[in-house]
Design brief:
Largest sheet: 8 strands, antiparallel
Number of helices: 1
Distance between the termini: 120 Å
Shape: elongated
Radius of gyration: 31 Å
Length: 211
């Protein structure tokens, strides 16, 4: 008796069951969600790194500003200030050699995201008084003083530019780390709650004291 050349169930159709398809879809979805989360974290960390680099540059710039002031300049020698962004110590009266000075221990810097301009609040000692004005540097290399109240101006004025604002605070500790020196610590904080964890950079220097 001859055997059939056709295998059994030759006309049957093999394929995936509905359960197998559903499992495959779930696994693919989990993989895609994981990849999307990874890309989002990479982008978030890249943006935060850029802000941190800017904060570090602004902290270094402020320390350079303070270091170029003379030893007898109260803006960089009188003890005071705070590094807490929720409790910045602004303009305070500080006595020195019988004269009362108005000393500010924080300022703001705004970087325009559209034009590349930078607006910086500055403290100026002028004719025995303390004044505040805002200086703006544009991308073309030209700097501009706030002309709303003249130069120097009081109180502090700000330019109406949009962008990222950094709060720079500094604290001066007398006779630290040794007697005769002051420790100046600068803390730069990005004022943008959408960036988490918050962007903050701290830097210090030591210089001779007033006395």
């Amino acid at each position: 008796m001859l055997k059939s050349l056709h295998p059994k169930n030759a006309n049957s159709e093999n394929g995936f069951t509905l359960m197998e398809v559903m499992v495959a879809i779930v696994i693919l979805t989990i993989g895609m969600l994981g990849a999307a989360l990874l890309m989002a974290n990479v982008y978030k960390n890249t943006v935060r790194s850029r802000y941190m680099a800017t904060a570090a540059a602004l902290a270094n710039e402020k320390l350079e500003d303070l270091s170029r002031f003379g030893v007898g300049d109260p803006r960089a020698s009188l003890a005071g200030g705070s590094l807490d962004p929720n409790n910045p110590q602004g303009a305070q009266t500080q006595p020195w050699n019988g004269v009362t000075y108005l000393v500010a221990y924080y300022d703001t810097v705004t970087l325009s995201s559209s034009t590349g301009a930078m607006s910086e609040t500055r403290q100026i000692l002028y004719n025995g008084g303390t004044y505040f004005t805002t200086q703006q540097f544009t991308a073309d290399g030209i700097w501009h003083w706030d002309t709303t109240t003249g130069y120097p101006s009081t109180p502090a004025q700000t330019f109406s530019s949009t962008g990222e604002t950094y709060l720079r605070l500094w604290k001066i500790d007398a006779d630290t780390p040794v007697t005769g020196n002051v420790l100046i610590t600068v803390n730069v904080v990005l004022k943008n709650d959408a960036i988490q964890p918050p962007v903050s950079f701290e830097m210090s220097m030591v210089r001779p004291s007033l006395n």
